[in-house]
Amino acid sequence: MGRFTIEILASQCGVTTQNLRSWQRYGLIKARKDEKGHRYYDFSHISQVNLIVQWIGKGVPLRSIQALMMGEEIRKNSGWFAYQEQLYALCEAGNLSKLRGFIWKIAREVPPHVFIDEFIRPFRLWITAGRQPGLEISRVRLDTALIEYAVFAVSNMRKRAGGTMLILGTHFNDTVELWLEAIRYAGEGFQVEVLAGRVSQPDLSREPYDHILVWAGRPLNAAQKARHTAWLEQGVPVAITGPGVRPMMKNASRDGDLKLKVPPAANQNPPESPDIQTA
After folding, report:
1. Would you say residue 19 lies in a domain?
2. 174 to each of 44, 139, 144, 232, how far by Cα in Å?
3. What is the pLDDT of residues 85-127, one digit of tens each?
4. Running DSSP on this structure, what letter comes out for residue 212?
């Protein structure tokens, strides 16, 4: 039977090693030990992790997932609304230390794509669109904490081997979106660099990266599509993503070509009521 390290298990399942260690603390997965006492994982763990990811995607709290795995009947208040209510309360209170702690806790416990697409993006859509007094400073507090976490995640991944990626944006007004993508791909094992500003006509032909991700704030016009086609013909490993833009790069693994994931449309009516411990 195949035996994996925690890094290989994370790679196979599209989660991070931080996720796995957090789930171990909740008793959701347990490493096996060989005759020398070394910890390892096998194919049965892949099925367990995939099941955990499915439940997390529905907003089921980790402590409830343990009961589900044991076959117990539980009351499932699944969804992300309660998490977002707690996040809003922290943004409004202005205690940046507690806000950072909450964001980092959630990011440790759920896969990056769930953290971004199911939790953060829908909440930012609401708080950015709102016109109530005080929402602006709440949004700035949130964005500050998100960028801090993104810098941590990106810096931490640079200590490990992995493909290199440059993330930049064109024709957009929200720099935080670049950092959210940085969290996503750092979590997938890439060594990410972010150009945190808008570049209207980037020349990517000389960039020394394995992969280049361009975030576009609006669909490409004819000239931009032609430029992207020219890059691909030159062998530039570039993908375009963002609102209304379809990906234009073939799928691949993190050891080879980029496995591009396009963020789904933000859900403006998130499901309801999981609970979470913030201690």
Report:
1. yes
2. 41, 12, 13, 26
3. 899 899 999 899 999 999 999 999 899 998 998 889 888 887 8
4. E
Domain boundaries, position 61: 6-69
CB atoms within 10 A of CB 170: 18
What does residue 185 show for φ and ψ, rounded to 5 degrees?
A: -85, -25
- Cα 182 to chain centroid, rounded: 8
For residue range 177-218, what is the model confidence (pLDDT) as tens digits?
Answer: 999 999 999 998 899 999 988 887 788 888 999 999 998 888
pLDDT at 162: 82
44: CATH: 1.10.1660.10
Q: Are 186 and 158 in contact (CB under 8 A)?
A: no
Q: How far is CA 226 from the centre of its chain?
A: 30
Does 226 fall in a domain? yes
Q: Which residue has the higher pLDDT, 159 or 141?
A: 141
pLDDT at 132 over 50: yes
Residue 180 in tokens:
């959210």
Other beta carbons within 10 angstroms of residue 163's beta carbon come to 21
Q: Is residue 248 part of a domain?
A: no
Question: In this structure, are 57 and 89 located in the same domain?
Answer: no
Same domain? 226 vs 152: yes
The domain total for the chain is: 2
Confidence grade of residue 244 (pLDDT, cut at 50, 70, 90): low
Which helix (DSSP H) or strand (DSSP E) does residue 170 occupy? Answer: strand 164-170
Examine residue 75 and state whether it is found in any structural domain, yes or no.
no
Distance CA 60, CA 58 (A): 6
Give the number of residues written for the chain: 279
